[in-house]
Amino acid sequence: MTSSSFLIDTHAHLNMLIPGKVRDREITNQEIRDLKNYVENARNANVNLIINVGTSYIESINSIAIAKEYNSIYATVGIHPCDVDDAPWKDSLDQLAKLLPQAAEHKIVGIGETGLDFYHKPFDATIQKDAFAAHLDLSIQYNLPVVIHVREAADATLDVLKSYAGKVRGVIHCFAQSYDFAKQVLDWGLVLGIDAPITYPKNNLLREVVEKVPLDSLILETDSPFLPPQKFRGKKNEPAHLTYVVDEIARIKQCSNEKVIETTMNATLNLFSLV
Ligand SMILES: [Zn+2]
Hints:
Elements: E1 7-12, H1 29-33, H2 36-44, E2 47-53, H3 57-69, E3 73-77, H4 89-97, E4 108-117, H5 125-141, E5 146-151, H6 154-162, E6 170-172, H7 179-187, E7 191-194, H8 204-212, E8 218-220, H9 242-253, H10 257-271
């Protein structure tokens, strides 16, 4: 066990912590600098790296801008399944894809978030599947991991992923599926992203999955500003709160917090090629 282990929040939307409606425009340098408190709070909680996830063209551009300001932040680029219906997603993804040959310069470490969401209505399943496949193709082309969102679309997600089995690496973000689903995607070489819903009293299903799967198949996320830990419910989440996810996983796995931190850190550094 090394004492240099640290936490990595592999899924945050710091841009959504900026006050006001900033989801449709480029954020300003001042707004980016104002995020400093969240970055410092994170560091004080041993959360030394944060991956800021893009969900649309503009939010991917904002993710890159945030990553370029802070040493401890990286970015992913992609179009969220809830954003593909009402936007020309192909044009947006093409624009983002132009950045990928210089991924390192832009601090882009992954593709997404993409996936399928049949919960938010109305939705177009065909468009979502096409967009998901396009992200998976980019992930292979540029050898970058993919960040996958799944909501009320478990079977359809497996259907799309099946033909990419063994070819893509990535994470099922904010894992909330069955153990059978988990087993299948782990078989295909993906990992599971675990968030603070694991602290929610009613979430025995997730706790059971985490108990059964190997610790090194898990990485940690906050999905800030969403999904705060139980004791902060109703408030905005932030990367510093990742420690509550660690506490709960250590309790379930009956191991030390250090073991959870070191194992998830190594899995994350490996998946996102951060070393
Ligand atoms: Zn997200």
